[in-house]
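Lab notebook page, bench 4
Experiment: in silico fold of construct C2
Operator: M.H.
Input chain length: 314 residues
Purpose: comparison with the prior construct
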Amino acid sequence: MLKTSGIHHITAMVNDAQRTIDFYTGILGMRLVKKTINFDRPEVYHLYFGNKTGDPGTVITFFPWSKQLKGRIGTGQVGVTSYAIPKGAISFWQERLAKFNFDYQTSIRFQEQYIQLEDPDGLIIELVERETGALSDSKISGISSDVAIKGFAGAILNSVQPNETADTLENILGLESVGQDEEYLRFLASGNVKQTIDIKLTASVRGLMGAGTVHHIAWRAKDDQEHQAWSDLLTQKRFHPTEIKDRNYFHSIYFHEKGGILFEIATDQPGFTVDEELEHLGEQLKLPSWLEEKRTELEEQLPDVEVRILEEDK
């Protein structure tokens, strides 16, 4: 049976590119590993944040577009994105969020303590201590590797049909059913990081796509051969996947699971160093070859952005 080793990346919608960079690099200490464009709407950035090398399982990506309407988090979406921090790091992050005037709440789920907050566009994110996963270097002042975000701890899915989504996670993607904790079902990915995917069982409003919502969640395929096997399986099971798309840094197929959430399966290779050296990831605007002739036009349309140290850390 095919099994994904976990989350490859998660992609979300936001309004402001610079504000997003300031939050995810300046406050959370993640690295901007790629600055490119939305291949379907090249007048919009596609920004990737992750660990130092942009490893699969660490990367959150964004389509920042000032004109899009505010979305609504609800069914048919990833409701919460969870990040893993090292054991003993919760107090550091509580102090850091307070320093930057971000409100947060704490909660317990499956006997783990979570810090939950909203990013500047209203995306709900969580921090949770996990032993699994390699430590991550952060270049942001005051964030050392013993407290830095390591990558994804998992996600909460808001499904129209929770039992159908559970069936897809377990019997299509190969995640392990862990059990139930009040209003959540939990599934465990097979990779070394041991990401957890929770399905919320209680009803909520219907999700509306827009700024402050997750567009899709992507699962890992180790190579092109396995990726083709996933495409064949999904076709056989009548999930109607898209054709394989070349995203420069990985190959992708997309499908909606029966709970209404858009899933992607993406290859681990070739990765983000295919067009930039590791030391310079995210520094230049990278375009696919078919858009290079429009570089000047696109650079004039896209807003100027930069990775910068925020005043609170100076």
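Observations: The chain has one domain: 7-313. The CA atoms of residues 287 and 293 lie 10 Å apart.
Next step: discuss at group meeting.
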